[in-house]
Amino acid sequence: MSHFVVIGAGQAGSSLVAKLRAEGFDGRITLVGAETAPPYQRPPLSKAYLLGEMEKARLFLRPEAWYAEHDIDLRLGVTASALDASARTVTLSDGETLSYDRLALCTGAHPRRLPAAIGGDLAGVFTMRDLADADALAPEMLEGRRLLVVGGGYIGLEAAAVAARRGLTVTVVEQAERILQRVAAPETSAYFRDLHRSHGVDIREGVGLERLLGEERVTGARLTDGSEIAADFAIVGVGVAPGTGLAEPAGLVLDNGIRCDIHCRTSDEHIWAAGDCASLLLADMRIRLESVGNAIDMAENAALNMMGRGVEYRPRPWFWSDQFDTKLQIAGLNAGWDAVHVRPGDSPAQQSHWYYRGARLIAVDAMNDSRAYMVGKRLIEAGRSPDPARAADPATDLKALLK
Question: What is the SS3 string spanning 143-196?
């Protein structure tokens, strides 16, 4: 009987094993997860869960009993410590060695931390990636306390929004010229800068962190412009690194993550990868797509190909972020844009930003405008590009762009 082993019990790993069973695979399946909780959804951690609006049980993707009911051996609270690709074995942290016929690496990504030399190891310094992070942060989120957020990306801004809603004094420090600089156009940065400032968040752009202050616990920060900020705790959101710690010593080819071909297969013919740890081809770019949508779709494709189906993976990027009362929905990938066209909505809080590369529509940022998001997504996936002036004209019926 064939044995398929999946390392990583997050969104990708859970989706992969579910797809295997749904498609009729009747061999052994082992799903290995480092956390003690069954597979859960991560996006609400920095939003509804941290706000206390979602119970822990609602985070779980499936009841834990589901895995046993589908004959999936779910190993929680153990890590994979070594991979021997030639012998096709994985050694676990509890000392057990698993032999596999096919292996999937769904090892995700890990938050980058500040160096200890600048205070990164002080008590009261947090990252926001997993359930343990959210549970550790919850007692800190008390009205009147002072939060420093290092990094003005989506994770940092989501945490800042939660803290501000709970009555904390919040300062966001972004070393780049503007928040969201790596992932969005200036127009989108300006929208969220204004949104946060309207809720009392102090946004400081173009200034870096020199060091965190404090002896044993963080008490503040000194910035590169010489100013100092008092803080009761800090959240660090300065990006993530792909989980390649198992793949690299095993000799798998890396390229901004675990390099995969169009079938989600790695450089080893018996190993696949999916989710945040994997790099893939999109058009002429090799990228990692850090999103729930890609984790699910790529994992399901990998499952099919582990069964020998030979199905090519064609990613369709989409993302979202919730901050205060704004829902941002993103369709497409804005890499290489050279023009952004702003479409006003029915209110200042509602607008959409249409990214073009030459005459081609490549992405849409939609703030509180689900119709613009859905239309933009359909256009991008169909390879259709409306005239930018029409797309940006609020008098244009969005549905007419699909005709």
Answer: CCCEEEEECCCHHHHHHHHHHHHCCCEEEEEECCCCCCCCCCCHHHHHHHHHHH
Residue 257: domain span: 3-110+240-307
| 213 strand-pairing partners | 220
pLDDT tens-digit profile of 325-376? 999 999 999 999 999 999 999 898 999 999 999 999 999 999 999 999 999 9
Q: How confident is the model at residue 105, as a pLDDT? A: 98
Give the three-class secondary structure for 323. strand
Beta strands in 224-294 (DSSP E): 228-230, 233-236, 240-242, 258-259, 271-273, 278-282, 285-287
Structure token digits, residue 39: 């597979």
117 and 226 share one domain:
yes
Return mean pLDDT, the chain. Answer: 96
Q: How far apart are CA 333 and CA 330, in angstroms?
A: 8
Q: Is residue 317 part of a domain?
A: no
Of 345, 119, 301, which is closest to residue 218 (Cα–Cα)? 119
Q: 34 falls in which pLDDT band (50, 70, 90)?
A: very high
Is the overall model pTM greater than 0.70, yes or no? yes
Co-location of 288 and 338 in the same domain = no
Q: How confident is the model at residue 284, as a pLDDT?
A: 81
SS3 367: strand
Whose structure tokens read 């399946």?
29
Coil vs helix vs strand at 81 = strand
